[in-house]
Amino acid sequence: MNHWLKRARGAIGMGVIWALVWAPLAILIGTRIIDPTDAMDEMWWMVGAIPGFLSGVTFSIVLGIAGRRRKLNELSVKRTAGWGAVAGALIGCLPFLLGDTGGRPWILLAGGVVSSITVLSAASAAGSLALAQRAEKRALLNAGANMDDARLTKSTVNESHPLR
After folding, report:
1. How many CB atoms lie within 10 A of CB 39?
2. Which of 30-39, 74-83, 105-114 has the highest mean pLDDT?
3. Is residue 23 a contact partner of residue 45, using CB atoms and an 8 Å limit?
4. How far apart are CA 59 and CA 134, in angstroms?
5. What was the pLDDT predicted at 151?
6. Which of 19, 41, 51, 150 lies 20 to 30 Å from 114, alpha-carbon distance?
7. What is the residue-wise DSSP string for the chain?
8. Which residues are within 8 A (CB) of 74 and not within 5 positions of it... i.e. 6 or more apart?
9. What CA–CA distance (Å, rounded) separates 87 from 133?
10. What is the tens place of the pLDDT at every residue in 27-62?
11. Contact of 56 with 17, CB cutoff 8 Å
12. Is residue 48 within 8 Å of 23, Cβ to Cβ?
């Protein structure tokens, strides 16, 4: 049971991190490109945060299934970005499976929504892997530095021995 709780906490954590990254992007895109005159009454941070959270959680599930027998250093950025794209495509299709297009032509809306979420999800997955590999490398280097400090040489043993 504890194993599943750790996985759930990790998936939710990944979703929160992706939501925090995607929300400012949605604000910039929404206020600068889509609605520069501020005529729409949208909460742009939610337009980015909700799909970011869902894509992050879905990516964690896809990664857990597809990469479960691999170590972090065995994962390639290209493959991980592909898994992120799969997660993004699944989440991008979700509003259209639920039937909510807001009265807009669904083909144009679907193309824009699915492609943008897929690309953002692939980039977020690649970035998450790069950050995780960097953190793992730094932890290994720090552990190696601590071992070097703790290593005793013959001269330090002879100097510190009380009978010599």
Report:
1. 7
2. 74-83
3. yes
4. 19
5. 47
6. 41
7. -HHHHHHHHHHHHHHHHHHHHHHHHHHHHIIIII-TT--S---HHHHHHHHHHHHHHHHHHHHHHHTTTS-GGG--HHHHHHHHHHHHHHHHHHHHHHT--TTS-HHHHHHHHHHHHHHHHHHHHHHHHHHHHHHHHHHHHHHHHHHHHHPPPHHHHHHH-TT-
8. none
9. 21
10. 887 777 776 777 677 777 788 899 999 999 999 999
11. yes
12. yes
> Rounded to 5 degrees, what angle do the CA atoms 73, 78, 9 make?
60
Residue type, 44: W
Q: Is 91 exposed, middle or buried (0-12, 13-18, 19+ CB in 10 A)?
A: buried
Token couple for 136: 């793992």
User: Amino acid identity of 55?
Assistant: S
Structure tokens at 135: 């953190």
Q: Hey, what amino acid is at 25?
A: L
Residue found under tokens 């997660």: 87
At a CB cut-off of 8 Å and minimum separation 6, what does 7 contact?
A: 60, 64
